[in-house]
Amino acid sequence: MSANNIALSFNTAEYYSLQEASEYLNTKYNSDNVTPKKILKHMVSHDTPAYIHVSFKNESFKIIGDFETTITTDPEFKNFFKKPYESKNEDESKYWLNKFKEIEEKANNDLYSNFYLGLLLLKVSELTLFNLSFKNEAANVDSLGFDGILIRNDLEADPSKLSFLKREQDSFYVRGIGHFEIGIEDIQNVDLEDIRKYISLEFDSIFETSGGLAYPYFKLSIRDLVILHKDLLTLEEQIIENVAVSKKQNISINLQNLPKRKGVSPKKVLAQSLARHIADDEWKKDKNKNIKMLEMSNIVWSKLWELGFADTLPEQQRIREWIKGNAPDYASEGGRPRQK
User: Fold this and answer.
1) Which helix (H) or strand (E) covers residue 204, if one does?
2) Which pLDDT score is estimated for 170?
3) Cα(329)–Cα(331) distance, rounded to whole angstroms?
4) Radius of gyration in angstroms for the set of CA atoms belonging to the chain, rounded to a whole number
């Protein structure tokens, strides 16, 4: 066996940093032209997934995002949404909200064990990769979230399915995940300087939301990225065969400079349905026809907060988009809302 073949065999692994990936390709093709940044640019062009290794050892950190649960396929849940404005719906909404919370908490507990042991790779959002492709290896950018999770002993899995989580028979469970962030719960009672040392990601500031939830602005660099061997082989083949680059879809950005979630989470669907129910009920009781749209938006926002939807709510003025389909004509007429 030639020295070149020995070196290539030695370089082959299940996954690589981009520096290791460039060394692998340079050895394979007897080249010195492949660099981590060039690999990254091709990854961005060909939608090749990149991952980072993340571990944390503090339960203040939670996965906040679009968990896909089996609740949405449950016949009782589907029946619940067939008649969203019945008076009994408020109690049912609380029931289903609690179910969502229980399932997400259980999933987070299972994930925490794996984060603690350092067994997980997180799929980096494509917008983060695009921003990194303009930086040198040492420079960093704010992470714009993640799109899946792989566990160490099953790197061939679909990162959106979370198939490694514990799943009990005949019960509700998390079966997948969309876009997500790593958040900090109960931020008022957390010492940021203290918990920085308990997570492998670096951050220098946070975005604090209402309800005690905060999102660190995690810093990522090209040096943090990992590419799987199977994905590198696919990318290599696409480059060699000069495969046409697919046209990119526009990526929308929200007020926190984070990608909007892909689709609407079941919890948000539940909040929107309950918002319409609350508004409809309040307007039915408004015999004097005094409650305008702005005031109703405030009423609905406050009640949803009390019911535990704080982490799902938009700004108060945007609640009107949720409830305007139920508004009576007089609610849209001019005039100031009543003074409380």
Assistant:
1) strand 202-208
2) 66
3) 5
4) 24
Query: Residue ranges of the alpha helices (H) in the chain?
Result: 3-11, 18-28, 36-45, 75-80, 89-117, 126-132, 192-195, 229-240, 266-285, 293-306, 319-323
Confirm if 178 and 33 have CB atoms less than 8 A apart.
no
Residues pairing with 150 in the sheet: 121
The span from the CA of 115 to the CA of 270, in Å, is: 29
Q: How do residues 32-41 score in pLDDT, each as one tens digit?
A: 999 999 999 9
Instruction: List b or e across 25-64, with b for residues whose CB sees 16 or more CB atoms inside 10 angstroms.
Output: bbbbeeeeebbbbebbbbbbbbebbbbbbbebebebbbbb
- What is the model's pLDDT at position 262? 42
Token output for 165: 């989580």
Q: b/e string for 198-236 if b means 16 or more Cβ within 10 A?
A: ebebebeebeebebebbbbbbbbbbebbbbbeebbeebb
The answer to whether 115 and 121 have CB atoms below 8 angstroms apart is no
Cβ atoms of 151 and 114 closer than 8 Å: yes
Tell me how far apart the terminal alpha carbons of the chain are, to the nearest angstrom.
Answer: 85
Tens-place pLDDT, residues 209-255:
766 788 999 999 999 999 999 999 999 999 998 888 776 665 544 44
Alpha-carbon distance of 233 to 183, in angstroms, equals 34
β-pair type (120-124, 146-151): antiparallel
Please identify which residue in the block is written with the tokens 């979230």.
Answer: 145
Residue matched to tokens 């919890």: 267
| Beta-carbon contacts of residue 154 (< 8 Å; ≥ 6 apart) | 163, 164
**Contact (Cβ atoms closer than 8 angstroms) between residue 215 and residue 258:** yes
Contact status, residue 181 vs residue 258, Cβ threshold 8 Å: yes
- Looking at the whole model, is its pTM more than 0.90? no
pLDDT: which is higher, 88 or 302 = 302
Contacts of 259 (CB under 8 A, 6+ apart): 125, 127, 144, 145, 179, 251, 252, 253
The residue-averaged pLDDT of 300-304 equals 87
Amino acid at 255: L
